[in-house]
Amino acid sequence: MMLFDAIGQLATWINAHAVWPHLPVWAYVVLTLIDTHITTTCVTLYLHRCQTHRSISFAAPVEHLMRLWLWVRTAMPTREWVAVHRCHHAYVETDRDPHSPIVYGIWRVVLLGTGLYHRAAHNQQIIEQYGKGTPDDFLELFYDRLSILGPVLTLITNLWLFGMAGLPMWLVEMAWIPFFAAGVINGLGHWWGYRNFETPDASRNLPGQYWSLLTAGEALHNNHHHIHNAARFSMKKGEIDPGYLYFSILKVVGLASQRRDAAGA
Questions:
Q1: Quick one: which of 30, 48, 68 has its CA closest to 229?
Q2: Long-range contacts of range 107-115, CB-CB < 8 Å, 24 or more positions apart?
Q3: What is the pLDDT of residues 135-163, one digit of tens each?
Q4: Reported pTM
Q5: Tens of pLDDT along 188-221?
Q6: How many helices and strands, by DSSP H and E, does the chain display?
Q7: Could you tell me which residues are beta bridge partners of residue 194?
Q8: E-strand spans in the chain?
Q9: For the CA atoms of 177, 179, 181, 187, what is the dihedral angle to 10 degrees?
């Protein structure tokens, strides 16, 4: 009972000192969806299209903001993410593919995809072979060695802003990328959906525009495997790629550019 009383007192104190502890439930839901969409956008634009496949680039302030956001929301070092994804492309659907549902089974990838990712991310041979060309400055060293500090700062900020409502928001924010990137895209994206192109792998585009909205365009996985370094993932009528839309806006205002040797205008 003393433990529960202490927890109750702590929760009361947190709510009493929070900035917005009594917003309507729908407001917390909307704020969480906006937050996770920003994270998803940073993953697809910075980690995937910019760093892994070198199809686009960003002005230094934009790049640093995305790196900071990914640190506090995902704790994923750039080099690890890039190396694992490049390894996936190099050995897609084989026993050396870090997270193929063809090899490991669809439910293991969907439900336990984070574990498969972390196993590959801690394989030093994969990191050294496929992580070349990623940022190697002091900030990346800090983000890498103190990766767990990022999500802790997010939790503290959530509690300060929203009181105890910030805790479930934080849990959703932390689970979003592991579920949608490691589970949905790596799993369903090679198991269920439609194919525009006969690629030598089992990649699929997830049907329905809501998948592309939730993943900022990453759900168009067959299109991506057709042209790895395409800046735009949407290739047929009716397909949408929010990530490319955001990139195009940044490009118009001079904060982003497309590499000359990249596909997809």
A1: 48
A2: 109/182, 109/183, 109/186, 109/187, 110/183, 110/184, 110/187, 110/188, 111/183, 113/178, 113/181, 113/182, 113/183, 113/186, 113/187, 114/178, 114/182, 114/183
A3: 999 999 999 999 999 999 999 999 999 99
A4: 0.94
A5: 999 999 999 999 999 999 998 999 999 999 999 9
A6: 14, 2
A7: 205
A8: 56-58, 256-258
A9: 180
Angle value at C-alpha 145, between 139 and 146, nearest 5 degrees? 85
Determine the Cα–Cα distance for residues 42 and 117; give it in Å rounded to an integer: 18
Report the b/e string of 46-81 with b at 16+ CB within 10 A.
Answer: bbbbbbbbebbebeeebbeebbebbbbbbbbbbbbb
CA 227/CA 230 separation, integer angstroms: 6
